[in-house]
Amino acid sequence: MNFIYEENRIYLNNEDNVVVAEIRFPEVEGNTVEITRTFVDESLRGQGVAGKLMNEAVTSLKEKGKKVIPTCSYARKWFENHEEYKSMVAEK
Questions:
Q1: d(CA 41, CA 37)
Q2: What pLDDT sits at residue 92?
Q3: Rounded to an integer, what distance in angstroms lies between the CA atom of residue 5 and that of residue 25?
Q4: How far apart are CA 13 and CA 66, in angstroms?
Q5: What is the spatial distance between Cα 89 and Cα 92, in angstroms, rounded to a whole number?
Q6: Helix or strand or coil: residue 24?
Q7: Does the pLDDT value for residue 75 go beyond 80?
Q8: Best CA proximity match to 58, nearest among 29, 30, 82
Q9: pLDDT tens, 46-69?
Q10: What is the DSSP letter of 89?
Q11: Considering the chain, what percentage of its residues have pLDDT values greater than 70?
């Protein structure tokens, strides 16, 4: 998959240049971002695309030393299931 990277967003377009998968993580303060949206179009669901988006985002954010506030339901569940990244979750 050829994800497109922006400062606070990673996404995937289809051949018609329409967004079919996306994760958004705007900065909320200093070194903390908030994962506010994880979206996968119906045509790609069940193929692990959301997990790939999370992996891409978390890898990038970890390299930058960022903390994460997972507010979207998928991100909250993902962090619950990936103990190895718990240290990235910002304290409330």
A1: 13
A2: 63
A3: 12
A4: 26
A5: 9
A6: strand
A7: yes
A8: 82
A9: 999 999 999 999 999 999 999 999
A10: B
A11: 99
| β-pair partners for 10 | 5, 23
**What's the rounded Cα separation, in Å, for the pair 61 and 82?**
15
Q: Return the structure tokens found at 52.
A: 């790939």
Length of the chain: 92
> Phi/psi at 56 (nearest 5 deg)?
-60, -45
Report CA-CA distances (Å) from 74 to 3, 17, 45, 53.
Answer: 19, 25, 13, 11
Judge contact between 75 and 69, C-beta under 8 A.
no
Q: How far apart are CA 24 and CA 10, in angstroms?
A: 7
Q: Which residues touch 7 (CB under 8 Å, ≥6 apart)?
A: none
Confidence of residue 1 (pLDDT cuts 50, 70, 90): confident
